[in-house]
Amino acid sequence: MDTRRTLPFALLALGGLAFIAGGATHPGDSGSGTKTEQLHEMLVQTSWYPSHALLLLGTVGFAAGAAALRDRGTAATRSVARVATVVGTVAILGMAVHLLEGLNADALADGRANLFAQVQAVNETVVDAAWGLAFAALALVGGLTRSIGNVVTAALGAVGGAAFALASATIAFTDAFDPLFPVSALLGTWAISIGVSGTRENAKTPVTV
Asked: Would you state the pLDDT for residue 3?
């Protein structure tokens, strides 16, 4: 077994699990007050760091998986995988910053946003939304061409990724789309499915020297 070929897919599956677990344990807020006050409510909860450590692990796994898919399937699939790799790599940095936002909790206690919070709002609405769209596109194109999964996995990834993108893009302005965050677990399910199948497939491939 060539671990260089199997490891990225194993990381994709692990990334999917971590993404689902991180989302499930993400702290919530009361839904009242300003967006800054709601953010402060989440930042002071003990689950902030564990949940975002899981989400950071998830973004690492997704980026590794996208990199492994860059030379797979049709030209369209390969192009989308390359874009997802770049976006996924940027998202690792974005999620690391998001994780450290917990350090900003005391500064937001007065209910007023500071520069760190404003930067993080851009991080979520732009980077996170682009990440969701990139992997939704990869799941859709890969599944419809059957070069990465099938029509079922295409639907899982496309719906989950689009839900995460829409919820992230609007989170700084409205709570209306927050219920879509749990739906984004479907993207994690896509990652687990593709990661497990890719690991098995490459484990059977003879090592060439």
From this structure: 65
